[in-house]
Amino acid sequence: THTHTHTHTHTQPTTTCHKPESGQGWGEGTHSGQDELMAEMVSLSIPQNIQISEVTCDSFRIGWDMAPEDTGRVTHYFIDLSRKEGRDPNRFKHRDVPTKLVAKAVSLPMAVRGHWFLSPRTEYCVAVQTAVRLPEGGDYLVSEWSEVVEFCTGDYGTVHLQQLLQKAEGAAGRLLRFSVFYRNQHPDYFHHIRTACGGVMHPALKDSSGSHGSPINGTLSGIFLSCNTEFDTGLPPNDSPYGPLRFLIPAAHLLHPSTHLYFADFYCMYTPYHYVILVLTPAGSEGDLFCRTRLPQLDLTANPFLTYSPPQREGEEPAFCHARDVILEVFYTEPLHLDQGSVVEISGHHQLMSLSTANAKKDPSCKVCNISVGR
Hints:
Structural class: mainly beta
Distance between the termini: 28 Å
Mean pLDDT: 82
Number of strands: 23
Largest sheet: 6 strands, antiparallel
Strand content: 25-35%
Radius of gyration: 27 Å
Low-confidence stretches: 1-33, 87-98
Helix content: 10-25%
Number of helices: 6
């Protein structure tokens, strides 16, 4: 039986993984006249063998074993759900109040879901109590807390990425023409590529920037490229937060009918700028196989972000367009040789670090780029 649990007390999750005190929050300070009743009742057994299954980015199923004599009289379950964080357990003791969830007793395992207390790809600790609600005053007879079990929520699923994609489509704006992909770095980077890597830029593992639940974070390797242009010139901007040297490669080298394009993320970082991450990968490649079951695939010739239009007549060049109102970050999954393009010096400022996205966290309060599942 599935059930939606609701927060009993709305508190911040605890920062440690300690076991709560027995009965903490329920069954303490009973009304006079009920003490004798509680004393006469047989105490509840401790829930055993906690099992977590079917974990998603915002839900999980939980079950446990109870003594047969308890099964018929337990009326409620109390679930202590807290984030697992490596902080000193003796600090901020007044904050160490678990997020307790209360549910009426149902058949186990039961589903726990809700974006108000679960975020994607986050480690949690969970413990449970069983309880019998007493007839007067609303107090409970409760069991001791179970053992604490740890688990980690998953990435965004298909349905969540589709929601994020719809949000991004609404922010993309009209399309502008472009002709090159580019990547800015400091001279030391390109010197290293030439002297230690044989002139080849190799894919690197995606960092944790952007949405917490994006399936490519820490799992897919690639090379970040830009394609955004200035509205008035149609050329790449002169400024960059990443460095004064720019690798340029013709768009036709990477974006063509033999490549696949996937949507991976949409986010902002407490600024007016919104970023869209797209994965560009050769059809049939390892990156393509990774994305095929995890990310929404986009039509190369008809999507709001990045398009390839084949030549209309013999002798014509294909046309390439990018979204005007978002900053596109194209994650290309294959190595690139510097000889495939050129490295030039740009004339603008190179210290715009507020625009750098390295390990940047998404603004969880933004109405434009957040969906109903955590950050």
